Amino acid sequence: MRDSIITTFIRDNRSMNYRYLNYRFLRFVLVAGCLIVASSGCLYRMDIPQGNRIDPELIDRLEIGMTRNQVKFLLGSPAIIDPYRPDQWHYVYFLKDGSSQKSESRRMTLHFADDALFGIDGTINPG
């Protein structure tokens, strides 16, 4: 009789400890989840620039008749050199604003003939 009372007491305490640990774990997960949800609005989202960032001053210095090397020295390497049209260089710029989630896209295509610049078109044009 005494042994059965002791084993019953031990078994009941074990199940109570498991229930208590489960309750503590559940409470921890719930509090952690609430903190994550509450702090998600406070995150910093940075701006994401991609491509060739070209200053307007550099674009204004572009001149018809410049060689490919002069253009590359001035603006840097183009984002895209079309393998089927090697006489065209494409400068592309894309910016996604982190705070407002708005995106801005600009492009400029330079046309060469006999290693000399003869045409500029796109949304980035010299002023």
Give an overview in words.
The structure is a single chain. The chain has 127 residues and is an alpha+beta fold. The chain folds into 2 domains: 2-42; 48-122, Beta-lactamase Inhibitory Protein, Chain:B, domain 1, CATH 3.30.1450.10. Helix content is 40%, strand content 26%. It contains 3 helices and 5 strands; from the N terminus they run αβααββββ. Strands 1, 2, 3, 4 and 5 form a 5-stranded antiparallel β-sheet that branches. The longest helix has 38 residues, at 2-39. The radius of gyration is 33 Å and the shape is rod-shaped. The model has no long low-confidence stretch (mean pLDDT 79).
Low-confidence stretches at least 5 residues in length (pLDDT < 50)?
Answer: none
Task: Tell me the strand percentage band.
Answer: 25-35%
The strand count comes to: 5
| CATH class type of the largest domain | Alpha Beta
Give a concise summary.
With 127 residues, the chain is α+β, with helices and mostly antiparallel strands. It folds into two domains: 41 residues; 75 residues, Beta-lactamase Inhibitory Protein, Chain:B, domain 1 (2-Layer Sandwich).
